[in-house]
Write a sequence for this structure.
């Protein structure tokens, strides 16, 4: 999802899935290192904007945890922020920190979802 704001910022959704008790083939096997738990999908609002000769991307809900990055193109910055969000959330889970819940910046679904940014 991309939305143009009056300030000409690009807003995109990044889809991150936390933990799953089943593998992709639905065999019911728990992957090594993964706890058996219900799968949740988190959709975070991210901002992507030009900054001189590069593009900056950040997640307002997780910027205090370091969820910000940049690259030479908008597409590369979006790919980077997806990876940064994944690493940030994995680290938060490993350290027992609370993952942000429902807000204007975050949507949480009890089942798997796929977000596609065009």
């Amino acid at each position: 999802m991309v939305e143009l704001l009056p300030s000409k910022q690009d807003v995109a959704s990044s889809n991150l899935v936390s933990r799953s008790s089943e593998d992709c083939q639905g065999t019911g096997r728990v992957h090594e290192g993964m706890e058996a738990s219900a799968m949740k999908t988190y959709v975070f609002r991210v901002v992507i904007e030009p900054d001189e000769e590069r593009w900056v991307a950040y997640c307002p809900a997780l910027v205090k945890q370091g969820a910000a990055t940049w690259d030479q193109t908008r597409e590369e910055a979006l790919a980077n922020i997806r990876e940064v969000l994944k690493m940030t959330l994995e680290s938060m889970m490993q350290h027992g920190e609370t993952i942000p819940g429902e807000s204007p910046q975050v949507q949480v679904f009890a089942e798997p979802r796929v977000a596609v940014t065009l």
Remarks:
- DSSP finds one helix and six strands in the chain.
